[in-house]
Write a structure and sequence with these properties.
The structure holds two protein chains of two kinds.
Chain A (H helix, E strand, L loop, with lengths): L7 H8 L12 H4 L2 E5 L5 E6 L8 H15 L4 E6 L12 H10 L1 E2 L8 E2 L3 E2 L13 E5 L7 E6 L5 E5 L15
Parallel strand pairs in A: 2-3, 4-9
Antiparallel strand pairs in A: 1-2, 5-6, 7-8, 8-9
Chain B lengths: L15 H26 L8 H29 L5 H6 L19 H22 L5 H29 L3 H14 L11 H8 L10 H15 L20 H16 L6
The chains are: A alpha/beta, B mainly alpha.
């Protein structure tokens, strides 16, 4: 039987089954890294992705995983393109993705509380994904992967990962000509 | 390993006389990121505590990612068929264009922190202004890296305060490190004649103009850290022109060993 030709919609659907290799509870769609899908000719698929963290080794794995998934589902040629602009931010994480993160034990990114540390900017309150306490403390801004910080809950005493909020910093104005 | 390239960014036409200067500038930025990334990666498994080991290697990874973006772009600008790997692994020490600061050895933890702090104080304002570069690719790379650099500058600033306003030993080591590293800071704010041409064309900021922001950051953090700001004096220079300290040769020997010994090896 001749396989059904891939459609753009079918490709998006297939991408739901490609997990983030470092946080496998998220698909690449939950993560928000897939920018575009094109089918320039029958069997040919072009997928454009945006990196999360510049040096994240998962990006190479994600590209390889997308390719093998699509090749195994009837694509004959897969091109993965990387696009830097507009840059990925944690706003691109889907709401479903944020819920999956918390259920998995990783605190999802939160907006700043409005508290400002004079020297280093805004302070965030991260909820413990286990007991939901707000009484948590930052252990290190750098965790087990580029996208995570390490926190500890002062109530249930469990250490946990926090998916860092990553956004373009506020633009400062510079005098023209500098 | 599959490596997606930045093919979604079409090449931009620049006037012929700017192509070589732009190639050199992008290479200088790439080398700067790679050499510091390598220095920090040397600490993998050797950090003073696990969390800081991970912090330094995370910063190394961010810088390495930026270096890759820049090397890929440099290879395209050169257009002679060299790849990002050729540029990183197969150029000799006099062809490297990083400023001398980033090749300083790790020394003790205070040295590592002071070197990082001085680098970050320059790096963040540089990326902020490169976002507005007339070169779309440099602007995109800077915009992407700036988000991460904000975590770096926070880390190094917090450690300066913790070490400076601390025990007698921590303070002495931090002052020693400052004494050694400070005279390498000035090179970051110099402009070559090629860079002046790029600045005039709106492709890069005037490095000298970054100093005010960098100094303001130093002043804020040093006040908190109760550290005196060293006076400007003699600046060590030459890295951007390929005249390096002896340390870079040893670094490259380790970095390039595998490709030099087994050419063309891949993961």
């Amino acid at each position: 039987m001749k396989p059904v030709p891939l459609t753009e919609q079918a490709v998006w659907h297939l991408l739901e089954d490609v997990p983030d290799p470092e946080v496998p509870v998220l698909s690449v769609l939950d993560l928000g890294v897939v920018r575009a899908v094109k089918l320039p000719a029958e069997g040919q698929v072009e997928v454009t992705i945006t990196p999360t963290y510049t040096g994240c080794p998962a990006m190479d794995t994600i590209a390889a995983d997308i390719r093998s998934k699509l090749l195994s589902e009837g694509a004959t040629q897969v091109d993965i393109r990387m696009q830097l602009t507009p840059p990925w931010t944690t706003d691109w994480l889907s709401d479903a993705g944020k819920r999956k993160l918390e259920a998995y034990g990783i605190a999802p990114p939160v907006e700043s509380s409005g508290d400002v540390n004079a020297l280093f900017g805004e302070v965030v309150v991260v909820h413990c994904p286990q007991c939901k306490s707000r009484n948590t403390v930052l252990v290190s801004q750098f965790g087990s992967t580029a996208c995570k910080a390490l926190y500890k809950c002062n109530d249930c005493l469990e250490p946990f990962d926090y998916f860092k909020c990553l956004k373009p910093p506020v633009r400062r104005n510079f005098a023209p000509g500098t | 390993m599959e490596q997606p390239t930045l093919t979604a960014h079409p090449p931009q036409e620049h006037p012929a006389e700017l192509r070589t200067p732009l190639f050199h500038y992008v290479l200088h930025l790439a080398d700067t990121h790679l050499v510091l990334a390598h220095r920090l990666s040397e600490l993998c498994g050797h950090g003073p505590v696990l969390e800081q080991d991970m912090a330094m290697t995370n910063i190394a990874l961010d810088l390495l990612g930026t270096a890759r973006n820049l090397f890929q772009y440099a290879a395209e600008l050169e257009g002679k068929g060299r790849t990002e790997d050729d540029l990183a692994y197969l150029r000799g020490v006099t062809e490297y264009r990083n400023p001398l600061l980033v090749e300083r050895p790790n020394g003790d933890f205070a040295h590592t922190v002071v070197r990082q702090f001085l680098f970050d104080a320059w790096h963040v304002p540089l990326l902020e202004r490169l976002r507005d570069s007339g070169d779309h690719r440099l602007s995109a790379i800077a915009t992407q890296s700036l988000k991460e650099a904000h975590y770096h500058i926070q880390w190094s600033g917090e450690w300066m305060i913790r070490l400076g306003d601390s025990t007698e030993e921590a303070r002495r080591r931090t002052e020693d490190a400052l004494k050694e590293c400070w005279s390498y800071w000035g090179e970051l704010f110099t402009m070559s004649s090629e860079e002046k041409a790029l600045h005039a064309a709106g492709l890069m900021p005037d490095n000298a103009s970054l100093r005010a922001d960098a100094s303001a950051h130093v002043e804020r953090v040093f006040t908190e850290a109760t550290l005196p700001i060293p006076p400007d004096g003699y600046w060590h220079k030459g890295g951007k022109e390929g005249r390096h300290t002896e340390h870079l040769g040893y670094l490259l020997a380790e970095l390039q060993y595998l490709q030099r010994t087994y050419p063309g090896q891949q993961w």
